[in-house]
Structure formats: structure tokens, C-alpha cells
User: Which sequence fits this backbone?
């Protein structure tokens, strides 16, 4: 598609990826960082500026800029095109030929949620929203903050939204797919949210994809009612307020994880801009990975009640498993973050935030409340509960220091800590050794690099490679043949076009050749390619001579003298 190619040539993949992957390190034409698609401590994610392609050598993810946006934002192909076009000011074609049925439906769902958000906001400002406005006033939210977060009110009647959507011309199937209405017995629908304070939930691009509705009347359960999952909303993949907070998270090199929507809004109003929350669910692996794309540091600041403590402990384990560096802020007095900043102010909260201790001290305090530290056996049991968390500290020296501090804190002999570490290490299964793959022959490696790097080398060399018998034994044969097909077809060469023609194992080989090149410079690619071509031709001649010698001997053994003489003459000419 002409527009697709024009878009890819106009948008720099390095710029796009850097918005999601912090601290990309430049190495020649390559940029290396931690993969946004899986948890890793050693960077294996590479973006190639010349070829406008990304590849992770850890999880295998790879593709062009459109594929990256599709994966990172959970978009369809058409939505990714539209996202990039709008982001970088590139006019989209007026024809709808780029769109498909799935993308059109998802587009309608986004529009429905925008209509709903505006309707709820208008209702909050109307006479019907008086009770909701009073609740917000009691919570200390000024009008500007209410407007900034798009808070609204769902009227209690149950027909306001459905009537608006039908009047705006949305199809019945689209309205039902939105999750914002519920079928009624006997036909038709009524609004899912009724008589509730509405919190719009956005994806990382800033589009409204769902809502949370807070009850305002006594006995109205549940306290928070959330949108069901839809084609555009998967709650385990969404972090509340991340679209606003990600810039602040990067600047502060750390996020704050709180429990509720009001906590996020209250902190934001107090100038604490790096706060986020999970969307009405326990923290998930995918949400942690979303956060880790922006920083691997996080402060957990859940409510001070028992439920908040349990949630903090569960979250710590998950965060550590995903390589996050975790601290815990316990505010005390039974105050949640929003209440704390309203009572003591933003500066007091920031001061507490700066001194928030590492997670293991918070865990050690919980152990001290559970066990009688005057008894040796209970001290040891408490230590056993802490060891898994301590063992997740990646740095060996830091791990040993923390273990010593915790042992002293609990009154346990340091030797016992060492013994427990050694026992745990002995119980861990060894990972199976991976057999290294055979490296490419020098001629193959040089030839591949030269052909990928230089158009003139491809024009002159690829047609002359076709038919060479010496290609048959090369690991790179599928790559060379695919390049020859691209060249002969006149479709134009690109890394993405070549990769699309390859099997998975050959894609990995191509990436290992191109992305592992530190300097990424071929000073005389044409000359190198021609030299490799001559080397392969020479191998072809050697193969032909060996074949003729074998045929001469066979003819002589079988008494075919004339055939032997003819083959011998051909061998003489070949030599």
C-alpha cells in the first residue's frame, strides 16, 4: 500500500520506540534497551535506525514501526496507522479501503465512549448532578480538577445514554458491544451506570475506553461498578492515569502505585504527578510491565488498613518477580494518600515519599507483628518468610547486606541466614544448557552484510548467485534466495519485506547478522559482495571437478573407455 510505505518512511521508529522504552542506548546505527514486551534485566531489545526495524533477542518480538504500535498499544493494523498518522501529522487517505470490519467496530466503540464521557460531564454540571457535586466538594476537589479528569455523573433513569447513542446513529450491535448498556427482559436496553459518580478510564494514548462508577447512595452496591471487558478494554492491561503520569514517571524515574481513583486525583491536585492505580482489580503482570516501560522504580502507597496491607504484600511479590525496585510508603493514622495530602499538605507527603524505605523493611515489620521475636523458633520462621523476597535482590553484595540487616533486625544469627541461602541455592534446579548454534561461515557472513547494506551489491550480485550449487550447503541460502526474489520482482528491498518472506528460524538468523553488527558500516560492500561471489563460484568449480573425477573412475571401472576419455577431457578443461 502506497500510504503505508509513505507513513513508514516519514516516521522514525527510534523516536516512536523511545516514547515507550526509556534509556535506549545508541550503538552505531542500533539502539539497545530493556524489552517492553517481557521482563528482562539485561537489555536484549534492539532498534535499527537504518533498517527501521526492532528485534528482541530475548522473547523474539520484532517488526516495523506499525507492528510495534500494534503490539504496544493493543491496536489493529488500521488503528496503528491512524494513531501514527495523527501523532505525526500525516494526512490519512480519504478512502476507507485501509480499514477492516474489526477496526471499524473498534472505532465505533471509541466514539461511543467519547459520547458517553461528554454526556456524563454535562449531567454532572446539571441540576441532576447536585449530589455528586456535593460529594466532590466534601472530598476537596476543585472544579478545575474535576474537569481535568473528566469526572461525570450517570443519571438514575437508565435511558439517558441509550437514547443519546441511538439519536447519534450508532448501530445496535455497536451499542451492545460497548458494555455501557445492559439488555432488559422483553427487549431493548437500559444504561449500565445509573446514579453514580463517573470516572473515565483511558488507554495509554489518552482515549476513553471504559468507566468506573462510584455509588453515591447508602446501600447501593457495589461501591465501585466497572465497565466489563470489551474489544477496546482489557482491565489487566490498563493502568489508571498512566497516559497523564508517564511523563512525570520518567522525569522522577519512579511511579507511585495507589489503590483508588480518588487517591490518584488527590495527589495530582497536590502536584504529585507520578501516581497511578490498577483499574478496580488486583495488580497484574501486564500492568507491571506497562509501568516498567517507563521506570523500574515504584513506591507502593496503599491504604493503611488490613486489606491494604494484604494487597501491598501481594503486589510486592509480583513487582519483584518482574524486576521492579520497590519501596513502601505507609502513612499511618489510617489515612489514604488523598486524605493525607488534604490534612498535611503536598510538602509533607513528598517528604514521606523521599524517605519511604525499601520493601524488605516493611515486610520485616509485618513479620515482627506476626511472630514472637522473643522465641528462637518464631524468629527463624519469620526469617523463612522474608528470604524469598530478599533473594530476589539482583545484586549479590546488596542481597548479602540486606540479609545481614534483616537478621539483626529480627535478632537472628547471621550464620543462620547464610545457611538458609545455601539450602535454597542447592534446591534450585539448574537450567538446561543451551547448545550453541553453528556460526555462519565467514563468506556467508560478509556476503549477507554486504547485500543487506548496499543496493548496488544486490543489483549486481544477486542475479549471479541464482543456480550456484555451492548455495545448497549454506545456512543462509533461504535468505539469499528471498533477497534474489525481491530483486527480480522489482518490489524494492527493505528489511521488513525480506523478513516477511522468511521462516521463523531464518528471521532469527537475519536479525542476528544485522542487529549484532556493532559498527553497522560496510566501507566497500559491492567489492566485498563480488569477492564472496567469486569465492562461491570457485567452490562450484571445485564441486564440478570432484564430480568429474568420480565419474571418470566409475567409467573406467565399468569399461566405458570412450565415456571415460570424454569426461577426462572435460576435467582437463575445468582445471
Assistant:
Amino acid at each position: 500500500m502506497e500510504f503505508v510505505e509513505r507513513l513508514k518512511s516519514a516516521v522514525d521508529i527510534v523516536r516512536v520506540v523511545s516514547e515507550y522504552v526509556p534509556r535506549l542506548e545508541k550503538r552505531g546505527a542500533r539502539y539497545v534497551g530493556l524489552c517492553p514486551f517481557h521482563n528482562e534485566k539485561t537489555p536484549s531489545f534492539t532498534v535499527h535506525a537504518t533498517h527501521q526495524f526492532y528485534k528482541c533477542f530475548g522473547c523474539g518480538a520484532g517488526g516495523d514501526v506499525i507492528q510495534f504500535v500494534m503490539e504496544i498499544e493493543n491496536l489493529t493494523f488500521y488503528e496503528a496507522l491512524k494513531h501514527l498518522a495523527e501523532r505525526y501529522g500525516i494526512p490519512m487517505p480519504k478512502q476507507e479501503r485501509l480499514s477492516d470490519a474489526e477496526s471499524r467496530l473498534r472505532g465505533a466503540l471509541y466514539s461511543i465512549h467519547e459520547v458517553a464521557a461528554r454526556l456524563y460531564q454535562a449531567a454532572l454540571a446539571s441540576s441532576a448532578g447536585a449530589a455528586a457535586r456535593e460529594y466532590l466538594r466534601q472530598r476537596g476537589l476543585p472544579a478545575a480538577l474535576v474537569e481535568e479528569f473528566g469526572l461525570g455523573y450517570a443519571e438514575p433513569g437508565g435511558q439517558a445514554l441509550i437514547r443519546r447513542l441511538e439519536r447519534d446513529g450508532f448501530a445496535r450491535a455497536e451499542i451492545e458491544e460497548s458494555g455501557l448498556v445492559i439488555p432488559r427482559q422483553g427487549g431493548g436496553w437500559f444504561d449500565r451506570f445509573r446514579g453514580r459518580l463517573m470516572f473515565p478510564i483511558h488507554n495509554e494514548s489518552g482515549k476513553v475506553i471504559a468507566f468506573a462508577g462510584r455509588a453515591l447512595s447508602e446501600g447501593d452496591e457495589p461501591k465501585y461498578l466497572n465497565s466489563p471487558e470489551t474489544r477496546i478494554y482489557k482491565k489487566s492491561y490498563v493502568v489508571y492515569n498512566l497516559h497523564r503520569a508517564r511523563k512525570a514517571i520518567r522525569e522522577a524515574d519512579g511511579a507511585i502505585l495507589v489503590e483508588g481513583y480518588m487517591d490518584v486525583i488527590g495527589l495530582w491536585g497536590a502536584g504529585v504527578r507520578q501516581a497511578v492505580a490498577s483499574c478496580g482489580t488486583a495488580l497484574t503482570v501486564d500492568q507491571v510491565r506497562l509501568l516498567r516501560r517507563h521506570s523500574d522504580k515504584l513506591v507502593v502507597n496503599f491504604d493503611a488498613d488490613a486489606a491494604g496491607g494484604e494487597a501491598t504484600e501481594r503486589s510486592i511479590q509480583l513487582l519483584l518477580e518482574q524486576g521492579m525496585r520497590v519501596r513502601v510508603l505507609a502513612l499511618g493514622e489510617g489515612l489514604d494518600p488523598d486524605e493525607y495530602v488534604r490534612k498535611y499538605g503536598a510538602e509533607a507527603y513528598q517528604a514521606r515519599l523521599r524517605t519511604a524505605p525499601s520493601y524488605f523493611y516493611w515486610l520485616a515489620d509485618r513479620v515482627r507483628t506476626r511472630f514472637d521475636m522473643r522465641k528462637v523458633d518464631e524468629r527463624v520462621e519469620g526469617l523463612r518468610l522474608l528470604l524469598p523476597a530478599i533473594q530476589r535482590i539482583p545484586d549479590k553484595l546488596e542481597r548479602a547486606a540486606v540479609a545481614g540487616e534483616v537478621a539483626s533486625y529480627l535478632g537472628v544469627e547471621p550464620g543462620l541466614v547464610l545457611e538458609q541461602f545455601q539450602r535454597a541455592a542447592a534446591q534450585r534446579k539448574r537450567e538446561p544448557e543451551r547448545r550453541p548454534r553453528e556460526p555462519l561461515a565467514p563468506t556467508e557472513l560478509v556476503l549477507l552484510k554486504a547485500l543487506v547494506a548496499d543496493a548496488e551489491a544486490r543489483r549486481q550480485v544477486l542475479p549471479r548467485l541464482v543456480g550456484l550449487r555451492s548455495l545448497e550447503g549454506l545456512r543462509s541460502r533461504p535468505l539469499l534466495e528471498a533477497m534474489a526474489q525481491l530483486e527480480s520482482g522489482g518490489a524494492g528491498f527493505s528489511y521488513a519485506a525480506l523478513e516477511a518472506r522468511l521462516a521463523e528460524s531464518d528471521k532469527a538468523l537475519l536479525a542476528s547478522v544485522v542487529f549484532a553488527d556493532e559498527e553497522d558500516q560496510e566501507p566497500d560492500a559491492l567489492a566485498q559482495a563480488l569477492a564472496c561471489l567469486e569465492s562461491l563460484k570457485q567452490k562450484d568449480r571445485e564441486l564440478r571437478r570432484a564430480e568429474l573425477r568420480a565419474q571418470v573412475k566409475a567409467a573406467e571401472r565399468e569399461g566405458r573407455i570412450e565415456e571415460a576419455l570424454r569426461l577426462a577431457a572435460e576435467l582437463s578443461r575445468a582445471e
Remarks:
- Residues 2-87 form a domain with the DNA Primase; Chain A fold (CATH 3.90.580.10).
- DSSP finds 26 helices and 16 strands in the chain.
- Confidence is low (pLDDT under 50) at residues 431-436.
